Dehydrogenase (Paenibacillus sediminis), 361 residues
Amino acid sequence: MSKTIRIGIIGTGGIARAHVAGYRTMDNVDIVAVADIVSGKAEQFIQAEQLGTALAFTDHRRLLELDLDGVSICTPNFAHHETTVDALNVGKHVLVEKPMSVTLEQSIDMVRASKKNDKMLTVGFQPRYDPNMEIVRSFVQSGELGKVYYVETGGGRRRGMPGGTFIRKDLAGAGAMADIGCYSLDMALNALGYPKPLTVSAFTSNYFGANPKYHSEADKFDVEDFGVAMVRLEGDIVLNYKISWAMHMDTLGATMFLGTDAGLKVTPAGTGPWSGVWDGKVGSIKLYHDVNKHHTESPIPIIEHSINLFNAKVQDFVHAIEQGGPAPIPGEDILYNQAIIDGVLRSAELKREVDIHIPQL
Ligand SMILES: NC(=O)c1ccc[n+]([C@@H]2O[C@H](COP(=O)([O-])OP(=O)(O)OC[C@H]3O[C@@H](n4cnc5c(N)ncnc54)[C@H](O)[C@@H]3O)[C@@H](O)[C@H]2O)c1
């Protein structure tokens, strides 16, 4: 009989329900407590999710006083930093939702707390559990493409702007770049082995979100709904990164890796106004190469699967706790993802290229 893994959940909104569903698939997980800053919300969540004897708190620090193995951080972005650092400092492993935080400094602090306390910090990028993402990574890592010198990623929804906490800078930190952009960045950077970002030159706008013609909460909308960036990565790789929550266009194109021996094109699955981004599944993968001097396009077979990616993410966290690590999607890597988002916002504000400084951790 395996040891019972005791879990706490901080933040009880939409994504917390997906975490509960994931933990529920495991016999040896006990959701011991939940916390939500809004009075009464944790109790309602326990009732709605039928969490039985789980304890409810409004202050996450009270939850962290309990004997817990791991904590799911499911708060809006602005609270990821404080809750994560507090959890690590009292010796809990952490699965924090994406994006990692609101600023690079916060992410650095989170990684330092993880190292100092020797506790895992993993970030909730469930598309990683799609086996087709692994195909993309293995192609890039195999050397089949030769030297990869240019990567284009991102995506665009024709009209898919969220509301609530996601559109307020004080709560979300950033808009489309962080909300859906962090997935495309993770896909590309993970395939490349998370090279260090060096500089960013970016533009952002919110012509749709801040216009009442397109958004019912336009008066509260102060993040970007569109962004484009040119990022220099270590190893002489250039990344062209673009994202939109709304636009008058069907697509911002596929993700592509250009190498000296071959190119790889990856298109997202799904159709409709909310599709075209990397929080969903892979639609197709194609290799562009020369065979006997002929320009050849080879479709790579997609793995059809029925994996619940959200469950897989939570299960992997529990397995990592059981095995004593390593973190499945390490904060130390995702720090670079956050550094790019941070650089995009700085560059867009200053209207010029900015350097990215990541200190030794
Ligand atoms: N992985 C995914 O596919 C996915 C999907 C949706 C959201 N998310 C991420 O999950 C996070 C939460 O999103 P959501 O849609 O569930 O948001 P939400 O606004 O529905 O819920 C967040 C909850 O956290 C609570 N909260 C805020 N500050 C808190 C604090 N300091 N302590 C405790 N509770 C606090 C709020 O009261 C709210 O109930 C965001 O970072 C978002 O980007 C990830």
User: Anything to note?
Assistant: The mean pLDDT is 96. The chain has eleven helices and 15 strands. The chain has two domains: 5-125+309-329, 128-306+340-355.
